[in-house]
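As the next step, I selected for study one protein, both as residues and as discrete backbone shape codes, as given directly below:
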Amino acid sequence: MTKTLLAVFTLLLLFTACKKNDGVNTTVTPVATLFSPDDSKAVDLASTASVVFEWDEALAADGGLVLYSVAFDKKGGDFSKPVYTLPSDGNGLYTKATMTKEILNSVAKLAGVQPLGTADFIWTVYSSKGVNKVRSGMTRNLSITRALGVDNPPVAVYITGSATEGGTDLGKALAFKQTASGKYEIYTSLAAGSYHFVSANTGTPDVFYTDVDGKTIRQGTGETTVTGATKEVRIRLDFNVVSVQNTEIKELALWFAPVNGTLFNLDYSAGGVWKAAAKPISFHQESWGRDERYKFRMLVNDGTADSYEWWGSKNSDNNRPDASTPPTFWDLYTVDDSQFNYCFKFVTEADGANCDVNMYFTADKPNYTHEVIVK
């Protein structure tokens, strides 16, 4: 054999050996034990935020990472056509899966369960290297009860009707602020008359109304009747559980921390805005200097009793603002009722001056906020 042929033969042998050694072993063991939730656990989605599914580790023949997925099937099924499959947390790397109520609602809905209905499921875990999934030899039972929710809540919500500030003109319907997925709220006033909710202020929107119980959203033609004097309210809608919460706002006042009391009330203007015009501000003299801390106290009634809500800064303490302070300094957050914590501070120029104080609980702002205008 010539040297050239020998070299070629040697290269072929090496190439063949490399090809054999390059093969990937995708063998994994099945998950041996399912830890949680307990077998036959009953999950009511009206009162459950999430459920954590956990299991034992599987092993890979190559010593590498294992991927996991959780599968659901109807009770009596064999997982040949699972109702729902989802990777575990960490894109399939963790030995647990956090199932939100939205995910579990999808499982029940795909199985044909109607709102408020209940069905029994089985679940298990698959392990793999991305291919050749291996099913655990263990399964567990799970009961899911759907909430009385709207699966596809409207993208936007407005209030309209003779009792509202915009009247019956759809184009003047007032917008709710979205606070979370499927959740909306509005600060407004209601007069004697009626109102309902719509998904848009143009065209032919979806229509919703409050059921006679005053606590449930219904879809379709309906009205809520308002009687008596005009009052300021906060309406919260949760389409996930079709709930309505109406709260009367009876008073909104500026709380001045140095005197541990309120200085003055703000009057409702319109469109979720409260105002106090030309109010005298005088900082409080302390041994260490002038104290200018303030926040806001809101007197509300949820239909059963009066209570206070407090609005202040996201920071427990603040420096006095100046011309370089960002607008977010004046954003409003629900805070505690402590005398000094989470207070704002007036600008230096407010001391001894008259000031306008305006609070904006409006949908057009990223956060509820307020302003102090030195006159």
About this structure: The radius of gyration is 31 Å. The chain has three domains: 34-145, 158-241, 249-374.
